[in-house]
Each structure stands twice: as C-alpha cells, then as structure tokens.
Design brief:
By secondary structure, this protein is an alpha+beta fold. Helices cover 17% and strands 37% of the residues. The protein has three helices and 13 strands, in the order E-E-E-E-H-H-H-E-E-E-E-E-E-E-E-E. The strands form four sheets. Strands 1-4-3-2 form a four-stranded antiparallel sheet, with no helix packed on it. Strands 10-9-12-13 form a four-stranded antiparallel sheet, with no helix packed on it. A three-stranded antiparallel sheet has the order 7-8-11, with no helix packed on it. A hairpin with a 4-residue loop joins strand 9 (148-155) and strand 10. Helix 1 (43-59) crosses helix 3. It starts with a strand and ends with a strand. Residues 1-9 have low confidence and may be disordered. InterPro entries: DUF6266.
Length: 213
C-alpha cells in the first residue's frame, strides 16, 4: 500500500484496473487488489480467523467505552477499540482451536497513567444488590478525589454488558441494584478511573467472576 500526494486533479477513490484508491483520516492511499487463490486455508489460518471473530464479537458492543479507556495521550493515535482488540488477540484468548474462549482475566479495557483504585472488591451483599468497595487514597500527582470510577460488568449467562459511572475515587463505595432476571447468572467485572479532563485514564483492573444468588 502506498501513500500519495494529490495532483492537479486531486486524489481518487474506488477501483481503477488492479488498484484501489482510498482515504483514511485525510490521508490518501492506493493499494493493489488482493490476489484470489484456490488454496484451502490451513488449520493455523482458520484458527487465527476464529480468534479474530471471537474477539470482535466480544469487544464490538463496548467500542465507545474502549475508545474512552485508551484515550490517555500516552497511548498514541490508534483507536482504543483497535488497541483492546490487539490485546485480546495477543493474550486474551485461551484454549486450542476449535475450543477457544475469552480469558476475561487478560482483557484490558483501559490503559493510562492515572492511578487505579486500591483494595478493590465486589460482592453481592443482598439478593439483587451489588456493592463495590475500595480504599479512597488520593494524591496530587495521579489520584484525585473527583476521578470518576467506571465499572464494566459482563453477564456471561445473558451475553450482556452494563456500564456504571456514578461514583468517584473519594466515595470509597458504590452500590447498585441488579435486575431480578440476573438471579443465578455469572458476571465478569472490570474497573478503571477517569480524570475530569476526559483524556486521562488508569490501567483497568479485573474484578474477577461473581456468581449471583
């Protein structure tokens, strides 16, 4: 793929012969069409495609959250979704094809220089009531009292994500009701903090698995 400068007639898009012109983020590119082959895909290729499909299916519903989670200026220009996808493909899938599954403990939903919460724990304190607690430690460098606390829950039983952002670092606790339909379901959880400027975040922390009563 080649990058090119616009001539007197400007850049072009679409197919012309064996090449295709396109533009991404105001940069124009030209690339050749892929060569079609009648060769059967190898087991390794099929396994890699399966991993990719599995990672995309899991992360796509939370694309906006991932873009926020990786918005820290230290993370470069790639989108948060693409960074999270690469992280899952590299470390977040366990098993041997065809028995592949997401390793939730290796999923990273945010990454940045802000300090995450200390002493984090979550539990179902009453039927249908979830409590998240942490130590409200602050400093003047990377842990501020008004940092937002972002909780991501994934209901494995129902294949459903929930996002909570109603607490701050200084609150030390967050309580939330769960739908009655969640009874007996299995949850996976992650937490991270976000700065008031909207562009600083912490490395996410995996809360672990929680089986509801």
């Amino acid at each position: 793929m080649a990058r090119f400068l616009k001539g007197i007639v400007g850049a072009y898009s679409g197919k012309v012969g064996s090449v295709v012109g396109s533009s991404w983020r105001s940069v124009d590119y030209v690339k050749s069409l892929p060569k079609f082959t009648g060769k059967k895909a190898t087991n390794g290729q099929i396994a890699q495609r399966t991993k990719f499909a599995l990672a995309v299916a899991f992360l796509s519903p939370i694309k906006d959250l991932l873009n926020l989670g990786y918005s820290d200026k230290l993370q470069g220009k790639a989108t948060g979704y693409n960074k999270a996808l690469q992280a899952v493909l590299s470390n977040g899938i366990s098993g041997v094809y065809p028995s592949l599954e997401i390793d939730y403990s290796k999923v990273v939903i945010s990454k940045g220089a802000l300090s995450n919460l200390m002493g984090v724990a979550w539990a179902e304190i009453n039927a249908g009531e979830l409590e998240l607690s942490w130590s409200p430690e602050i400093n003047k460098f990377n842990a501020f009292a008004d940092d937002s606390v972002v909780l991501l829950m994934y209901n494995r039983t129902k294949n459903f994500f929930s996002i909570m952002e109603s607490g701050t670092r200084l609150d030390a606790t967050l309580s939330l009701p769960l739908p009655a339909s969640y009874s007996g379901d299995t949850l996976e959880g992650w937490i991270f903090t976000g700065h008031r400027d909207g562009v600083k975040t912490s490395l996410s922390y995996y809360l672990g698995q929680l089986v509801l009563a």
